[in-house]
Amino acid sequence: MKHHVNFFIVMPGLKSWLAVATAIGICLGASLSTPSTKDIKLLKENCPLTDVLFPVLPCGTFRLEEATIDDMQAAMNNGTLTSVQLVGCYVLRTFQTHLYINSLLQYNPDALSIAAQMDAERAAAKIRGPLHGIPFTVKDNIATKDQLETTAGSWALLGSIVPRDAHVVAKLREAGAVLFGKAILSEWADMRSNNYSEGYSARGGQCRSAYNLTVNPGGSSSGSAVGVAANAIAFSLGTETDGSVINPAMRNNIVGLKPTVGLTSRAGVIPESEHQDTVGTFGRTVRDAVYALDAIYGIDQRDEYTLAQEGKTPEDGYASYLTTKTALKDAVFGIPWNSFWRYADPEQVRQLTALIKLIEDAGATIINGTEITDHERIVSPYGWDWDYGTNRGYPNESEYTVVKVDFYNNIKTYLSELENASIRSLEDIVQFNYDNDATEGGRPWPLGHPAFYSGQDGFLASLATKGIKDETYYQALNFTQSSTRNGIDDALTYKGKKISGLLVPPDVAQAPQIAAQAGYPMITLPAGIHSASGMGIGLGIMQTAYGEPELVKWGSAIEDLQKSTNTPYKRSLPQWRDCLKRNIPVYTVYEGSD
Protein backbone atom coordinates (compact mmCIF):
# COMPACT_ATOMS: atom_id res chain seq x y z
CA MET A 1 0.00 0.00 0.00
CA LYS A 2 1.28 3.49 -0.88
CA HIS A 3 0.48 6.64 1.08
CA HIS A 4 1.99 10.03 1.77
CA VAL A 5 4.72 9.90 4.38
CA ASN A 6 7.15 12.12 6.19
CA PHE A 7 10.22 11.03 4.27
CA PHE A 8 12.58 12.96 6.55
CA ILE A 9 13.26 9.75 8.47
CA VAL A 10 15.46 8.62 5.59
CA MET A 11 17.57 11.72 5.12
CA PRO A 12 17.02 14.56 7.64
CA GLY A 13 18.91 16.96 5.39
CA LEU A 14 16.07 16.88 2.89
CA LYS A 15 13.59 18.78 5.08
CA SER A 16 13.78 22.14 3.36
CA TRP A 17 13.38 20.62 -0.10
CA LEU A 18 10.87 17.89 0.65
CA ALA A 19 8.51 20.09 2.66
CA VAL A 20 7.68 21.90 -0.56
CA ALA A 21 7.97 18.79 -2.73
CA THR A 22 5.59 16.79 -0.55
CA ALA A 23 2.96 19.54 -0.76
CA ILE A 24 3.32 19.63 -4.54
CA GLY A 25 3.15 15.86 -4.68
CA ILE A 26 -0.09 15.78 -2.73
CA CYS A 27 -1.62 18.32 -5.12
CA LEU A 28 -0.50 16.28 -8.11
CA GLY A 29 -1.68 12.95 -6.77
CA ALA A 30 1.85 11.58 -6.32
CA SER A 31 2.81 9.36 -3.41
CA LEU A 32 5.92 8.02 -1.75
CA SER A 33 6.23 4.46 -0.48
CA THR A 34 7.08 4.00 3.18
CA PRO A 35 10.66 2.67 3.68
CA SER A 36 10.98 -0.23 6.09
CA THR A 37 13.54 -0.44 8.89
CA LYS A 38 15.48 -2.96 6.81
CA ASP A 39 15.38 -0.58 3.83
CA ILE A 40 16.84 2.24 5.88
CA LYS A 41 19.60 0.02 7.25
CA LEU A 42 20.62 -1.08 3.75
CA LEU A 43 20.43 2.50 2.53
CA LYS A 44 22.86 3.67 5.17
CA GLU A 45 25.25 0.83 4.28
CA ASN A 46 25.55 1.20 0.52
CA CYS A 47 22.58 3.08 -0.95
CA PRO A 48 21.27 0.35 -3.26
CA LEU A 49 17.58 1.10 -2.79
CA THR A 50 16.83 3.38 -5.68
CA ASP A 51 13.14 2.48 -5.61
CA VAL A 52 12.93 3.60 -1.98
CA LEU A 53 14.91 6.82 -2.15
CA PHE A 54 14.52 7.89 -5.76
CA PRO A 55 11.24 6.55 -7.18
CA VAL A 56 9.99 8.52 -10.21
CA LEU A 57 6.50 9.28 -9.01
CA PRO A 58 3.52 9.23 -11.38
CA CYS A 59 2.26 12.64 -12.47
CA GLY A 60 -1.37 12.13 -11.55
CA THR A 61 -2.28 9.14 -13.73
CA PHE A 62 0.61 9.78 -16.13
CA ARG A 63 3.77 7.65 -15.88
CA LEU A 64 6.60 10.18 -15.80
CA GLU A 65 9.50 7.73 -15.62
CA GLU A 66 11.23 7.53 -19.02
CA ALA A 67 8.28 9.35 -20.63
CA THR A 68 9.05 10.60 -24.11
CA ILE A 69 7.96 13.93 -25.54
CA ASP A 70 5.41 12.06 -27.68
CA ASP A 71 4.05 10.38 -24.53
CA MET A 72 3.64 13.78 -22.88
CA GLN A 73 1.93 15.27 -25.92
CA ALA A 74 -0.49 12.34 -26.17
CA ALA A 75 -1.44 12.71 -22.49
CA MET A 76 -1.93 16.46 -22.79
CA ASN A 77 -4.00 16.03 -25.94
CA ASN A 78 -6.32 13.49 -24.32
CA GLY A 79 -6.76 15.60 -21.20
CA THR A 80 -5.04 13.35 -18.65
CA LEU A 81 -2.11 15.74 -18.21
CA THR A 82 -1.50 19.48 -18.40
CA SER A 83 1.70 21.42 -18.88
CA VAL A 84 1.20 22.97 -15.44
CA GLN A 85 1.03 19.48 -13.93
CA LEU A 86 4.12 18.44 -15.86
CA VAL A 87 6.11 21.40 -14.57
CA GLY A 88 4.91 20.64 -11.03
CA CYS A 89 5.95 17.01 -11.30
CA TYR A 90 9.40 17.97 -12.54
CA VAL A 91 9.65 20.40 -9.61
CA LEU A 92 8.85 17.49 -7.32
CA ARG A 93 11.45 15.29 -9.02
CA THR A 94 14.04 18.06 -8.78
CA PHE A 95 13.38 18.56 -5.07
CA GLN A 96 13.56 14.80 -4.57
CA THR A 97 16.97 14.45 -6.19
CA HIS A 98 18.60 17.85 -5.81
CA LEU A 99 20.65 17.28 -2.67
CA TYR A 100 22.17 14.25 -4.37
CA ILE A 101 22.81 15.12 -8.00
CA ASN A 102 22.49 18.94 -7.89
CA SER A 103 21.65 19.21 -11.60
CA LEU A 104 19.59 22.42 -11.50
CA LEU A 105 21.31 25.70 -10.73
CA GLN A 106 18.23 27.92 -10.75
CA TYR A 107 14.50 27.28 -11.13
CA ASN A 108 12.59 29.62 -13.43
CA PRO A 109 9.90 31.42 -11.35
CA ASP A 110 7.98 32.03 -14.59
CA ALA A 111 7.76 28.32 -15.48
CA LEU A 112 4.25 27.73 -14.16
CA SER A 113 2.85 30.86 -15.79
CA ILE A 114 4.41 29.88 -19.13
CA ALA A 115 2.95 26.40 -18.74
CA ALA A 116 -0.48 27.86 -17.99
CA GLN A 117 -0.26 29.94 -21.16
CA MET A 118 0.59 26.82 -23.18
CA ASP A 119 -2.36 24.98 -21.60
CA ALA A 120 -4.67 27.86 -22.54
CA GLU A 121 -3.43 27.76 -26.13
CA ARG A 122 -3.98 24.01 -26.27
CA ALA A 123 -7.52 24.46 -24.96
CA ALA A 124 -8.07 26.94 -27.80
CA ALA A 125 -6.82 24.34 -30.30
CA LYS A 126 -3.57 26.22 -30.90
CA ILE A 127 -0.67 23.76 -30.69
CA ARG A 128 2.65 25.12 -31.84
CA GLY A 129 4.41 21.82 -32.43
CA PRO A 130 5.89 18.76 -30.70
CA LEU A 131 7.48 20.85 -27.93
CA HIS A 132 4.30 22.70 -26.96
CA GLY A 133 4.08 22.72 -23.16
CA ILE A 134 7.21 20.60 -22.67
CA PRO A 135 9.61 21.68 -19.86
CA PHE A 136 13.32 22.02 -20.63
CA THR A 137 16.51 23.39 -19.10
CA VAL A 138 19.47 25.20 -20.59
CA LYS A 139 23.08 25.29 -19.51
CA ASP A 140 23.93 28.38 -17.46
CA ASN A 141 26.08 29.86 -20.23
CA ILE A 142 23.00 30.34 -22.45
CA ALA A 143 21.37 33.75 -21.94
CA THR A 144 17.74 34.20 -20.97
CA LYS A 145 16.13 37.64 -20.71
CA ASP A 146 13.94 36.92 -17.70
CA GLN A 147 14.28 36.47 -13.95
CA LEU A 148 17.06 33.92 -14.35
CA GLU A 149 20.76 34.68 -14.07
CA THR A 150 23.29 33.86 -16.80
CA THR A 151 26.68 33.41 -15.14
CA ALA A 152 28.59 30.41 -16.52
CA GLY A 153 28.52 29.23 -12.90
CA SER A 154 30.70 32.11 -11.71
CA TRP A 155 29.84 34.66 -9.03
CA ALA A 156 31.57 37.24 -11.24
CA LEU A 157 28.52 37.64 -13.49
CA LEU A 158 25.83 37.47 -10.81
CA GLY A 159 23.35 40.31 -11.31
CA SER A 160 24.47 41.08 -14.84
CA ILE A 161 21.65 41.75 -17.30
CA VAL A 162 21.75 40.22 -20.76
CA PRO A 163 20.44 42.23 -23.73
CA ARG A 164 18.12 39.50 -25.03
CA ASP A 165 17.38 35.79 -25.02
CA ALA A 166 19.98 33.65 -26.72
CA HIS A 167 18.70 32.86 -30.21
CA VAL A 168 18.20 29.19 -29.35
CA VAL A 169 16.12 30.10 -26.28
CA ALA A 170 13.97 32.47 -28.31
CA LYS A 171 13.37 29.69 -30.84
CA LEU A 172 12.32 27.25 -28.11
CA ARG A 173 9.93 29.80 -26.64
CA GLU A 174 8.40 30.23 -30.10
CA ALA A 175 8.02 26.45 -30.31
CA GLY A 176 5.96 26.51 -27.10
CA ALA A 177 8.51 24.84 -24.84
CA VAL A 178 8.53 25.80 -21.16
CA LEU A 179 11.82 27.04 -19.73
CA PHE A 180 12.15 25.21 -16.41
CA GLY A 181 15.48 26.67 -15.33
CA LYS A 182 19.24 26.78 -15.70
CA ALA A 183 21.36 23.64 -15.48
CA ILE A 184 24.64 23.48 -13.58
CA LEU A 185 27.84 23.36 -15.61
CA SER A 186 31.56 23.13 -15.13
CA GLU A 187 32.44 26.77 -14.42
CA TRP A 188 33.13 28.83 -17.53
CA ALA A 189 32.51 25.66 -19.55
CA ASP A 190 35.90 24.23 -18.52
CA MET A 191 37.88 27.12 -19.99
CA ARG A 192 39.18 28.44 -16.67
CA SER A 193 41.23 25.46 -15.46
CA ASN A 194 43.03 22.46 -16.89
CA ASN A 195 42.93 20.41 -13.68
CA TYR A 196 39.54 20.71 -12.02
CA SER A 197 36.50 18.84 -10.70
CA GLU A 198 34.20 18.27 -13.68
CA GLY A 199 30.69 19.56 -13.04
CA TYR A 200 31.77 22.04 -10.35
CA SER A 201 31.11 25.77 -10.30
CA ALA A 202 31.47 28.29 -7.50
CA ARG A 203 27.85 29.39 -7.83
CA GLY A 204 26.33 25.95 -8.28
CA GLY A 205 28.59 23.57 -6.38
CA GLN A 206 29.28 20.01 -7.50
CA CYS A 207 26.90 18.33 -9.96
CA ARG A 208 26.92 14.54 -9.61
CA SER A 209 25.79 11.74 -11.90
CA ALA A 210 22.88 9.60 -10.71
CA TYR A 211 24.83 6.58 -11.99
CA ASN A 212 27.68 7.16 -9.55
CA LEU A 213 27.82 10.22 -7.33
CA THR A 214 31.58 10.03 -6.76
CA VAL A 215 32.69 9.85 -10.40
CA ASN A 216 33.20 12.56 -13.01
CA PRO A 217 29.65 13.28 -14.28
CA GLY A 218 30.93 14.49 -17.64
CA GLY A 219 31.05 18.07 -18.74
CA SER A 220 31.04 20.82 -19.23
CA SER A 221 27.27 20.47 -19.85
CA SER A 222 27.03 18.41 -16.68
CA GLY A 223 23.64 19.42 -15.25
CA SER A 224 21.95 19.28 -18.64
CA ALA A 225 22.86 15.62 -19.11
CA VAL A 226 22.45 14.60 -15.45
CA GLY A 227 18.95 16.09 -15.21
CA VAL A 228 17.70 14.35 -18.35
CA ALA A 229 19.24 11.03 -17.26
CA ALA A 230 17.62 11.20 -13.81
CA ASN A 231 14.16 11.90 -15.26
CA ALA A 232 14.27 15.39 -13.72
CA ILE A 233 13.54 17.17 -17.02
CA ALA A 234 12.22 16.26 -20.48
CA PHE A 235 15.15 17.59 -22.54
CA SER A 236 17.96 20.07 -22.26
CA LEU A 237 20.38 22.25 -24.20
CA GLY A 238 24.13 22.24 -23.70
CA THR A 239 27.12 23.67 -25.50
CA GLU A 240 30.26 22.08 -26.84
CA THR A 241 33.67 23.40 -27.75
CA ASP A 242 35.38 20.05 -27.43
CA GLY A 243 33.37 17.11 -26.06
CA SER A 244 31.04 19.02 -23.74
CA VAL A 245 27.83 17.57 -25.23
CA ILE A 246 29.04 14.13 -26.26
CA ASN A 247 30.98 13.38 -23.06
CA PRO A 248 28.27 14.06 -20.43
CA ALA A 249 25.60 12.40 -22.60
CA MET A 250 27.72 9.26 -22.90
CA ARG A 251 28.57 9.14 -19.19
CA ASN A 252 24.92 9.59 -18.20
CA ASN A 253 23.57 7.00 -20.63
CA ILE A 254 21.44 9.34 -22.75
CA VAL A 255 21.43 10.68 -26.30
CA GLY A 256 23.62 13.68 -27.05
CA LEU A 257 23.47 15.40 -30.44
CA LYS A 258 26.27 17.83 -31.22
CA PRO A 259 25.55 19.76 -34.45
CA THR A 260 27.83 21.15 -37.12
CA VAL A 261 29.37 24.44 -36.00
CA GLY A 262 27.06 27.11 -37.39
CA LEU A 263 23.91 25.00 -37.60
CA THR A 264 22.73 26.41 -34.25
CA SER A 265 23.34 30.05 -33.39
CA ARG A 266 25.77 30.94 -30.61
CA ALA A 267 24.35 34.48 -30.24
CA GLY A 268 23.68 35.02 -26.56
CA VAL A 269 25.90 32.11 -25.49
CA ILE A 270 28.89 32.84 -23.26
CA PRO A 271 31.66 31.91 -25.71
CA GLU A 272 34.85 29.92 -25.71
CA SER A 273 35.89 29.67 -29.35
CA GLU A 274 33.94 30.95 -32.33
CA HIS A 275 35.54 28.22 -34.45
CA GLN A 276 34.34 25.28 -32.35
CA ASP A 277 31.43 26.38 -30.15
CA THR A 278 28.04 24.84 -30.94
CA VAL A 279 24.73 24.40 -29.10
CA GLY A 280 23.59 20.77 -28.84
CA THR A 281 20.68 18.81 -27.42
CA PHE A 282 20.12 16.08 -24.82
CA GLY A 283 17.26 13.58 -24.69
CA ARG A 284 16.50 10.12 -23.38
CA THR A 285 15.68 9.14 -26.97
CA VAL A 286 16.95 10.17 -30.38
CA ARG A 287 13.52 11.53 -31.27
CA ASP A 288 13.45 13.80 -28.22
CA ALA A 289 16.92 15.18 -28.97
CA VAL A 290 15.91 15.73 -32.61
CA TYR A 291 12.71 17.57 -31.68
CA ALA A 292 14.89 20.01 -29.74
CA LEU A 293 17.33 20.36 -32.64
CA ASP A 294 14.50 21.05 -35.07
CA ALA A 295 13.35 23.90 -32.86
CA ILE A 296 16.71 25.66 -32.53
CA TYR A 297 18.63 25.33 -35.80
CA GLY A 298 18.55 27.98 -38.50
CA ILE A 299 20.12 31.18 -39.76
CA ASP A 300 20.62 34.02 -37.29
CA GLN A 301 22.00 37.36 -38.43
CA ARG A 302 23.73 37.80 -35.07
CA ASP A 303 25.93 34.77 -35.77
CA GLU A 304 27.56 34.98 -39.19
CA TYR A 305 28.65 31.34 -38.99
CA THR A 306 25.01 30.30 -39.40
CA LEU A 307 24.86 31.85 -42.87
CA ALA A 308 26.84 28.92 -44.29
CA GLN A 309 23.94 26.51 -43.73
CA GLU A 310 21.88 28.11 -46.51
CA GLY A 311 20.70 25.31 -48.82
CA LYS A 312 22.27 22.59 -46.67
CA THR A 313 19.43 21.87 -44.23
CA PRO A 314 16.24 19.81 -44.77
CA GLU A 315 13.03 21.62 -45.68
CA ASP A 316 10.94 19.35 -43.45
CA GLY A 317 13.32 19.35 -40.48
CA TYR A 318 15.51 16.60 -39.10
CA ALA A 319 12.66 14.63 -37.53
CA SER A 320 11.68 13.61 -41.06
CA TYR A 321 14.80 11.40 -41.08
CA LEU A 322 13.78 9.36 -38.01
CA THR A 323 13.40 5.73 -38.98
CA THR A 324 13.35 2.15 -37.69
CA LYS A 325 15.69 -0.83 -37.57
CA THR A 326 14.59 -2.01 -41.02
CA ALA A 327 16.65 0.82 -42.53
CA LEU A 328 19.84 -0.83 -41.28
CA LYS A 329 19.86 -3.24 -44.23
CA ASP A 330 21.03 -0.29 -46.34
CA ALA A 331 23.64 0.99 -43.90
CA VAL A 332 27.41 0.82 -44.33
CA PHE A 333 29.40 1.78 -41.23
CA GLY A 334 33.13 2.24 -40.87
CA ILE A 335 35.24 1.31 -37.83
CA PRO A 336 38.34 3.54 -37.41
CA TRP A 337 40.03 0.96 -35.22
CA ASN A 338 43.58 2.26 -35.15
CA SER A 339 42.42 5.86 -34.89
CA PHE A 340 40.24 5.42 -31.77
CA TRP A 341 39.08 1.93 -30.85
CA ARG A 342 42.48 0.60 -29.76
CA TYR A 343 42.43 3.10 -26.87
CA ALA A 344 39.13 1.80 -25.42
CA ASP A 345 39.15 -0.35 -22.29
CA PRO A 346 38.46 -4.11 -22.72
CA GLU A 347 34.98 -4.11 -21.18
CA GLN A 348 33.89 -1.26 -23.38
CA VAL A 349 35.23 -3.01 -26.47
CA ARG A 350 33.36 -6.19 -25.57
CA GLN A 351 30.05 -4.43 -25.07
CA LEU A 352 30.28 -2.16 -28.11
CA THR A 353 31.44 -4.89 -30.47
CA ALA A 354 28.52 -7.05 -29.27
CA LEU A 355 26.17 -4.18 -30.14
CA ILE A 356 27.85 -3.74 -33.52
CA LYS A 357 27.38 -7.46 -34.18
CA LEU A 358 23.67 -6.95 -33.48
CA ILE A 359 23.66 -4.06 -35.97
CA GLU A 360 25.40 -6.27 -38.53
CA ASP A 361 22.88 -9.07 -37.95
CA ALA A 362 20.12 -6.54 -38.73
CA GLY A 363 21.58 -6.15 -42.22
CA ALA A 364 24.19 -3.41 -41.91
CA THR A 365 27.60 -3.74 -43.54
CA ILE A 366 30.53 -3.15 -41.18
CA ILE A 367 33.93 -2.20 -42.59
CA ASN A 368 36.90 -2.29 -40.24
CA GLY A 369 39.93 -0.05 -40.72
CA THR A 370 38.30 3.08 -42.13
CA GLU A 371 40.93 5.29 -40.54
CA ILE A 372 41.23 9.02 -40.00
CA THR A 373 43.89 10.16 -42.44
CA ASP A 374 47.17 10.95 -40.69
CA HIS A 375 45.73 9.78 -37.37
CA GLU A 376 49.24 8.93 -36.18
CA ARG A 377 49.96 12.66 -36.23
CA ILE A 378 46.70 14.31 -35.17
CA VAL A 379 45.19 11.83 -32.67
CA SER A 380 46.83 11.86 -29.25
CA PRO A 381 47.77 8.34 -28.07
CA TYR A 382 47.60 9.55 -24.46
CA GLY A 383 43.92 10.48 -24.21
CA TRP A 384 42.18 13.84 -24.61
CA ASP A 385 44.71 16.65 -25.00
CA TRP A 386 43.70 19.92 -26.59
CA ASP A 387 47.32 21.10 -26.53
CA TYR A 388 48.63 17.93 -28.15
CA GLY A 389 50.34 19.91 -30.90
CA THR A 390 52.37 21.97 -28.43
CA ASN A 391 53.12 18.93 -26.29
CA ARG A 392 54.77 17.25 -29.26
CA GLY A 393 56.67 20.43 -30.19
CA TYR A 394 54.28 22.08 -32.67
CA PRO A 395 52.14 24.88 -31.18
CA ASN A 396 51.18 25.80 -34.76
CA GLU A 397 49.33 22.47 -34.91
CA SER A 398 47.51 22.83 -31.57
CA GLU A 399 43.80 23.34 -30.97
CA TYR A 400 44.61 25.13 -27.71
CA THR A 401 46.65 27.73 -29.58
CA VAL A 402 43.42 28.74 -31.34
CA VAL A 403 41.06 28.46 -28.37
CA LYS A 404 43.24 30.57 -26.07
CA VAL A 405 43.22 33.49 -28.52
CA ASP A 406 39.57 33.08 -29.44
CA PHE A 407 38.43 33.12 -25.83
CA TYR A 408 40.28 36.34 -25.02
CA ASN A 409 38.54 38.13 -27.89
CA ASN A 410 35.15 36.39 -27.86
CA ILE A 411 34.54 36.87 -24.13
CA LYS A 412 35.27 40.59 -24.39
CA THR A 413 32.64 40.90 -27.13
CA TYR A 414 30.07 39.03 -25.04
CA LEU A 415 30.75 41.06 -21.89
CA SER A 416 30.46 44.37 -23.77
CA GLU A 417 26.71 43.86 -24.19
CA LEU A 418 25.93 43.22 -20.53
CA GLU A 419 24.28 45.77 -18.27
CA ASN A 420 24.78 46.07 -14.50
CA ALA A 421 28.17 44.39 -14.77
CA SER A 422 31.63 45.53 -13.73
CA ILE A 423 33.29 42.57 -15.46
CA ARG A 424 34.28 43.68 -18.99
CA SER A 425 37.33 41.61 -19.89
CA LEU A 426 39.27 38.47 -19.14
CA GLU A 427 41.58 40.61 -17.00
CA ASP A 428 38.56 41.50 -14.84
CA ILE A 429 37.54 37.85 -14.47
CA VAL A 430 41.04 36.80 -13.45
CA GLN A 431 41.25 39.57 -10.85
CA PHE A 432 37.79 38.67 -9.49
CA ASN A 433 38.95 35.09 -8.99
CA TYR A 434 42.06 36.26 -7.13
CA ASP A 435 39.97 38.57 -4.96
CA ASN A 436 37.57 35.74 -4.14
CA ASP A 437 40.07 32.94 -3.83
CA ALA A 438 38.16 30.87 -1.27
CA THR A 439 35.14 30.43 -3.55
CA GLU A 440 36.50 31.01 -7.06
CA GLY A 441 39.89 29.35 -6.66
CA GLY A 442 42.00 31.98 -8.36
CA ARG A 443 45.17 30.35 -7.09
CA PRO A 444 46.07 26.66 -7.31
CA TRP A 445 45.15 24.38 -4.43
CA PRO A 446 45.92 24.48 -1.50
CA LEU A 447 45.85 28.28 -1.73
CA GLY A 448 42.55 28.34 -3.61
CA HIS A 449 39.76 25.76 -3.86
CA PRO A 450 40.16 21.97 -4.23
CA ALA A 451 37.66 21.86 -7.11
CA PHE A 452 39.97 24.14 -9.09
CA TYR A 453 43.17 22.25 -8.38
CA SER A 454 45.23 24.16 -10.96
CA GLY A 455 43.59 27.48 -10.12
CA GLN A 456 42.75 29.46 -13.26
CA ASP A 457 45.63 28.35 -15.44
CA GLY A 458 43.34 28.18 -18.49
CA PHE A 459 42.41 31.83 -18.08
CA LEU A 460 46.03 32.80 -17.52
CA ALA A 461 47.10 30.99 -20.69
CA SER A 462 44.46 32.88 -22.65
CA LEU A 463 45.39 36.15 -20.95
CA ALA A 464 49.01 35.71 -22.02
CA THR A 465 47.98 35.77 -25.69
CA LYS A 466 46.29 39.20 -25.38
CA GLY A 467 44.06 37.95 -28.18
CA ILE A 468 46.73 38.50 -30.81
CA LYS A 469 46.12 36.50 -33.97
CA ASP A 470 49.69 35.97 -35.09
CA GLU A 471 51.15 33.62 -37.67
CA THR A 472 51.22 30.71 -35.21
CA TYR A 473 47.51 31.22 -34.52
CA TYR A 474 46.54 31.14 -38.19
CA GLN A 475 48.76 28.15 -38.89
CA ALA A 476 47.20 26.28 -35.98
CA LEU A 477 43.67 27.19 -37.11
CA ASN A 478 44.38 26.02 -40.65
CA PHE A 479 46.07 22.81 -39.51
CA THR A 480 43.50 21.72 -36.95
CA GLN A 481 40.56 22.39 -39.24
CA SER A 482 41.98 21.05 -42.51
CA SER A 483 43.66 17.96 -41.07
CA THR A 484 40.59 16.82 -39.11
CA ARG A 485 38.11 17.62 -41.87
CA ASN A 486 40.17 15.82 -44.48
CA GLY A 487 40.74 12.97 -42.05
CA ILE A 488 37.05 12.41 -41.32
CA ASP A 489 35.95 12.91 -44.93
CA ASP A 490 38.54 10.41 -46.15
CA ALA A 491 37.41 7.86 -43.56
CA LEU A 492 33.80 8.32 -44.71
CA THR A 493 34.78 7.30 -48.25
CA TYR A 494 35.29 3.62 -49.01
CA LYS A 495 36.15 2.43 -52.52
CA GLY A 496 34.92 5.71 -53.95
CA LYS A 497 31.54 5.64 -52.18
CA LYS A 498 30.30 7.54 -49.15
CA ILE A 499 29.45 5.36 -46.16
CA SER A 500 26.71 5.94 -43.59
CA GLY A 501 28.95 7.01 -40.74
CA LEU A 502 31.90 6.17 -38.52
CA LEU A 503 31.12 4.14 -35.41
CA VAL A 504 33.36 5.23 -32.53
CA PRO A 505 33.62 4.79 -28.74
CA PRO A 506 32.99 8.36 -27.42
CA ASP A 507 34.59 7.46 -24.11
CA VAL A 508 37.83 7.56 -26.10
CA ALA A 509 37.76 11.34 -25.92
CA GLN A 510 40.03 11.76 -28.92
CA ALA A 511 37.06 10.83 -31.15
CA PRO A 512 34.79 13.75 -30.20
CA GLN A 513 37.91 15.91 -30.07
CA ILE A 514 38.71 15.32 -33.73
CA ALA A 515 35.05 16.04 -34.62
CA ALA A 516 35.20 19.22 -32.51
CA GLN A 517 38.31 20.54 -34.25
CA ALA A 518 36.67 19.87 -37.61
CA GLY A 519 33.43 21.54 -36.54
CA TYR A 520 31.64 18.36 -37.64
CA PRO A 521 28.53 16.78 -36.09
CA MET A 522 28.36 13.72 -33.88
CA ILE A 523 25.77 11.76 -31.93
CA THR A 524 26.18 9.38 -29.00
CA LEU A 525 23.69 6.64 -28.11
CA PRO A 526 23.36 4.79 -24.78
CA ALA A 527 25.05 1.42 -25.18
CA GLY A 528 25.57 -0.17 -21.77
CA ILE A 529 27.10 0.30 -18.34
CA HIS A 530 30.64 -0.03 -17.02
CA SER A 531 30.50 -2.71 -14.35
CA ALA A 532 33.12 -1.11 -12.10
CA SER A 533 31.89 2.48 -12.06
CA GLY A 534 28.23 2.06 -13.03
CA MET A 535 28.65 4.88 -15.55
CA GLY A 536 27.35 4.84 -19.09
CA ILE A 537 28.97 3.49 -22.22
CA GLY A 538 28.08 5.14 -25.51
CA LEU A 539 28.24 4.32 -29.19
CA GLY A 540 29.09 7.35 -31.28
CA ILE A 541 28.48 8.10 -34.94
CA MET A 542 30.62 10.70 -36.72
CA GLN A 543 29.69 12.51 -39.91
CA THR A 544 30.82 15.30 -42.19
CA ALA A 545 29.62 18.91 -42.14
CA TYR A 546 25.81 19.14 -42.20
CA GLY A 547 25.61 15.36 -41.99
CA GLU A 548 22.91 15.52 -39.30
CA PRO A 549 20.32 13.73 -41.49
CA GLU A 550 22.58 10.66 -41.51
CA LEU A 551 23.11 10.86 -37.75
CA VAL A 552 19.37 11.07 -37.13
CA LYS A 553 18.56 8.27 -39.56
CA TRP A 554 21.10 5.77 -38.32
CA GLY A 555 20.93 6.81 -34.68
CA SER A 556 17.18 6.24 -34.61
CA ALA A 557 17.51 2.95 -36.50
CA ILE A 558 20.08 1.62 -34.02
CA GLU A 559 17.99 2.81 -31.08
CA ASP A 560 14.92 1.03 -32.47
CA LEU A 561 16.99 -2.13 -32.84
CA GLN A 562 18.17 -1.85 -29.22
CA LYS A 563 14.64 -1.37 -27.90
CA SER A 564 13.16 -4.23 -29.92
CA THR A 565 15.63 -6.81 -28.58
CA ASN A 566 16.65 -8.01 -25.14
CA THR A 567 20.19 -6.71 -25.55
CA PRO A 568 21.63 -5.20 -22.36
CA TYR A 569 23.60 -2.74 -24.50
CA LYS A 570 21.13 0.17 -24.39
CA ARG A 571 19.85 2.82 -21.99
CA SER A 572 19.20 1.68 -18.44
CA LEU A 573 18.10 3.59 -15.36
CA PRO A 574 20.59 5.11 -12.88
CA GLN A 575 21.59 3.03 -9.87
CA TRP A 576 22.65 5.97 -7.67
CA ARG A 577 25.91 4.36 -6.58
CA ASP A 578 27.62 5.90 -3.55
CA CYS A 579 24.71 8.28 -3.08
CA LEU A 580 25.82 9.32 0.42
CA LYS A 581 29.35 10.38 -0.56
CA ARG A 582 30.30 13.99 -1.33
CA ASN A 583 33.90 13.93 -2.53
CA ILE A 584 35.44 17.01 -4.17
CA PRO A 585 37.07 16.73 -6.57
CA VAL A 586 35.10 13.91 -8.17
CA TYR A 587 37.10 10.87 -9.24
CA THR A 588 38.46 10.99 -12.76
CA VAL A 589 39.03 7.22 -13.04
CA TYR A 590 36.60 5.90 -15.61
CA GLU A 591 37.34 2.36 -16.63
CA GLY A 592 35.72 -1.01 -17.00
CA SER A 593 36.24 -3.94 -14.66
CA ASP A 594 39.34 -5.13 -16.48
From TrEMBL:
InterPro entries: Amidase_dom, AS_sf. Residues 96-380 form the Amidase domain. It comes from the Eukaryota. It holds the Pfam family Amidase. Signal peptide: none annotated. This is Amidase signature enzyme. It comes from Neurospora hispaniola.
